[in-house]
Amino acid sequence: MEFNFEQVHNYYERLVFEEVARRASKYPRFTSDMLADVSCVALNRLPARYVRHDVDMMFYLTEQERHAIELSLEEVLQFSFGFVGDRASKTLGQ
Questions:
Q1: Number of CB atoms found within 10 A of residue 88's CB
Q2: Closest alpha carbon to 78 in 31, 33, 23
Q3: What is the pLDDT of residues 35-94, one digit of tens each?
Q4: pTM of the prediction?
Q5: Is the dihedral of CA 17, 22, 23, 29 positive or negative?
Q6: Where are the domains of the chain?
Q7: Secondary structure tally for the chain: helices H, strands E
Q8: By the 8 A CB rule, do 52 and 7 touch?
Q9: 5: helix, strand or coil
Q10: What pLDDT is stored for residue 55 in this prediction?
């Protein structure tokens, strides 16, 4: 029997990556490495939700669950940008 796990991924990855890329212009001093760190911090603060297809996840969510995901994503991204920015400032002595 052959197994194919290539489609399996954390549902939040795409959401976080897209949102970090969208917000990057608001943080001009952030390097690409810092933006990758923001993504890692954010993903580590969110629950793992593994799916094969994002559309399957969205189909089974209630409106309340979708709203909760949006709120948690916003909270986590605000924290992550601040966390990485603070650490970079301390490292650079600014």
A1: 16
A2: 23
A3: 999 999 999 999 999 999 888 788 888 999 999 999 999 999 999 999 999 998 887 665
A4: 0.87
A5: positive
A6: 9-84
A7: 4, 2
A8: yes
A9: coil
A10: 87
